Amino acid sequence: MPFMPVKFNSQKRVKLAQGLWLIYWLSVIVGIFIFSLGIFFKIELRKRSEMMDNNESHLVPNLLILVGLLACGINAFGGKVCHDSLDPVKFAKWKPMLKPYLMMCCGFNGLLLLTGLLCFLMQFAVYLTLAEGLKNSIKFYKDTDTPGRCFMKRTLDMTQIEFRCCGNNNFRDWFEVQWISNRYLDMSNDLVKDRVLSNVEQKYLMDSVPFSCCNPGSPRPCIQHHLTNNSAHYDYDHRIEELNIWTRGCREALFSYFSSMMSSIGILVLGTIILESADMAGLKYLTTALETMEDPENPECESEGWLLEKGVKETFGDLLTKMKTLGKGNQVDEGGDAQEAAT
Amino acid sequence: MALMLVKFDLKKRVKLAQTVWFMYWFAVMAGVLVFSMGLFFKIELRKRSELMDNNESHFLPNLLIFMGLIACGINAFGGKVCYDSLDPSKFAKWKPMLKNFLVFCVVFNALLFVTALLCFVMRIPLQFTLAEGLRSGMKFYKDTDTPGRCYMKRTLDQMQMEFRCCGNDNYRDWFEIQWVSNRYLDFSAKEVKDRIGSNVDGQYLMDGVPFSCCNPSSPRPCIQFQMTNNTAHYSYDHYTEELNVWNRGCREALLSYYGGLMNTIGALVLLVTMLEIGVTIGLQYVDSSLSTLVNPDDPESESEGWILEKTVKETFTDIMDKMKAMGKGSKVEEGEAAVATVS
User: Fold this and answer.
1) How high is the ipTM of this complex?
2) Of B67, B85, B88, whose CA–CA distance to B20 is shortest?
3) Which end of chain A has a smaller Cβ tally under 10 Å, C or N?
4) Which one of A143, A184, A187 would you mutate to disrupt binding with B, by most B Cβ within 10 Å of its Cβ?
5) Is B166 helix (H, G, I), strand (E, B) or coil?
6) How far apart are CA B196 and CA B205, in angstroms?
């Protein structure tokens, strides 16, 4: 008893072939879209790789690029088969390839599922990489004369401006590092000497933040220095002041940006699985409908199409027996070889 | 003697109609492009209208939107006419409208050309609007408590950061106005009283700039205050310091942005004009070749196509005569009406 049989006449077959051809071209466009999303994600990771210690994993974007290219190829081939399916001569040359093609499509759907799951799971890895990377970035902010790190200041400033954030967890992270290079500190000055000696590591620490932490929405000009000293500024209370500098931490800001990107891509990939499954079902119906024509010479005759030739359980049982025979076949071969070697 | 006469047989006519139909669909997309460019330009002007005193002229983007819509309509109609041109019965219903339609197309092409020229010319009024608007913008920077101007600070800060510019002509413009609100000045402090007393208008002027002028690429933390005082900062010489704040003035930055945008739009509109002229000529050939069939009942017969039925001079004199005849006709009618009222 075939699984989900449907009767087809000539008109229905033509309609199915045309509809399926359109869906295949839609799938090609979706494949191109996934490819371009993979490239976009890769570029975004590269742009901010300095914030992540150049340590970020490019697995997800590379996988997306691969999946996008495969989707284009597979769906273009499927569309060609549909286009030729109404001409018996042309269809005859594609017929032998169809069974392995459908197996490949199943495998491709599995790959899509894996990619979709990775899009959601790899967010944890991104979070951890960001935490480490930002901590180091803040440490290297002042090293504008060290080769390999001279653009860290600019990158961090532009990130803070663009993502409207300050520091790793919040602005107080800047109080714990020296973010002014020693080249611009007058070491003969008493104030500087006091500050440097006031901590074990001899760092010039202060309760100030860089200008990129400033919030343009503040009604007053930005207060960057002596942030915790209320008397240093007129009419200022650092406990209730909210608009002066960005209160969000950059790790949270960057993570929410990347996680929303990865979640949207993941949902799109999972939607593509549904589209690809529809393609496979349609192609299976089309091929079975063309194979079971009662009178091969008469194109107007009726035929039947199905998804599986036998029921689901029977097909599954058949697959298992096939795999067992393959395994037994190997064992028999080995036994045969052993016998030959012995004799 | 017709202008640019070409002989047509059936195959050539079919090819001409198909080509012109294809070009018309291209032209519809070009019309959509012109419309969307007008919309984009309007949005860009609106975004920064605060910096132009809400005084900017929306004439050009409105014209582009209008021309884009008309182009879509005209080209869709022309495409339909071409599509029907190979079927004599369908073409018969369009034939009477074609002459007027072609005259309308010629007028539209002239307007499109004028629009393209305007795109290049309207840069000059924009320059004046920007200069005025930025000067006022900077004056109102501190008025974050005045309704209607409370967002000027944020707009100006974001613009300086986005366009990498400072002040109107350069950063010294900030030295000439008070950009700190009186609400945040301690009038009992001697320093404040000195500064206010030092100029005629009683303004708190200082040699400092807002944080949005800071250049993130500077190797040292941003020096915003006491910029002309070399002794206030360690190892600082304001004559040779180049990377500290942005050197460019915002008027120049905004003008080059809008100027580039207008130049691009003008170039694209010129290309669209040439495309429109091409399709108009194509339609004239289609119309004239179908009107001059040697044997009207035989679709295979030969025919001739042209751009103008007579030469340019003769066509021009014909038009002048027609206009004179129309003028005389009105005069004769007036004379008759006068005679009728008298008698």
Assistant:
1) 0.79
2) B85
3) C
4) A184
5) coil
6) 7
Q: DSSP assignment of B227-295, as one string?
A: TT-GGGSTT--TTT--SSB--S-HHHHHHHHHHHHHHHHHHHHHHHHHHHHHHHHHHHHHHHHHHT-SS
Q: How confident is the model at residue B342 (pLDDT cuts 50, 70, 90)?
A: low
The model's pLDDT over A184-201, given as tens digits with 9 standing for 90+, comes to 998 898 989 999 998 888
Nearest CA in chain A to B143: A219
The token duo for B289 is 């070749």
Confidence of residue A3 (pLDDT cuts 50, 70, 90): confident
Mean pLDDT of A164-192: 92
Q: Are B285 and B13 in contact (CB under 8 A)?
A: no
Query: Residue A115 is encoded by which pair of tokens?
Result: 């990619």
Token pair recorded at residue B272? 């669209």
Q: Do residues B213 and B171 lie in contact, with contact meaning Cβ atoms separated by under 8 Å? A: yes
Contact A183 B221 (CB under 8 A): no
Which amino acid belongs to residue B76? Answer: A
pLDDT, position B316: 84
Closest-CA residue in chain B for A143?
A: B219
CA-only gyration radius of chain A, Å: 32
Region A235-264: mean pLDDT is: 93
Query: Which residues, in sequence order, are CB contacts of A150 under 8 Å at separation 6+?
Result: A143, A144, B219
Which residue in this structure is represented by tokens 């590379």? A62
- For A73, the enclosing helix (H) or strand (E) is helix A59-84
What CA–CA distance (Å, rounded) separates A40 from A61? Answer: 8
Contact of B71 with B31, CB cutoff 8 Å: yes
Q: DSSP assignment of B172-223, as one string?
A: GGGGGS--S-GGG--TTSHHHHHHHHTSTT-----S---GGGB-TT-SS---
Chain A residue numbers with beta carbons less than 8 Å from the beta carbon of B211 are 211, 214, 221-222, 224
Question: What is the model's pLDDT at position A309?
Answer: 77
| Consecutive H or E run containing B305 | strand B303-305
Domain boundaries, chain B: 6-138+255-307, 171-246
Distance CA A302, CA B301 (A): 47
Q: What percent of chain B has a predicted confidence (pLDDT) above 90?
A: 56
Count of all residues that appear for chain A in the document: 343
CB contact under 8 A, A161 and B186: no
Nearest beta carbon to residue A210 from set B179, B186, B221? B221
Contacts of range A146-151, beta carbons closer than 8 Å, 24 or more positions apart: A150/B219, A151/A50
Q: Do the strands A303-305 and B6-8 form a parallel or antiparallel pair, or are they unpaired?
A: unpaired
Answer whether A156's CB lies under 8 Å from A212's CB. yes
- Is the pLDDT higher at B156 or at A304? B156
Cβ proximity of A230 and A191 under 8 Å: no
Apex A190 CA angle, A185 and A192, nearest 5 = 30
Contact (CB<8Å) B158/A216: yes
Chain A contact set for B159 (CB, 8 A): none
Instruction: Report DSSP state, residue B6.
Output: E
Of B186, B216, B220, the CB nearest to A212: B216
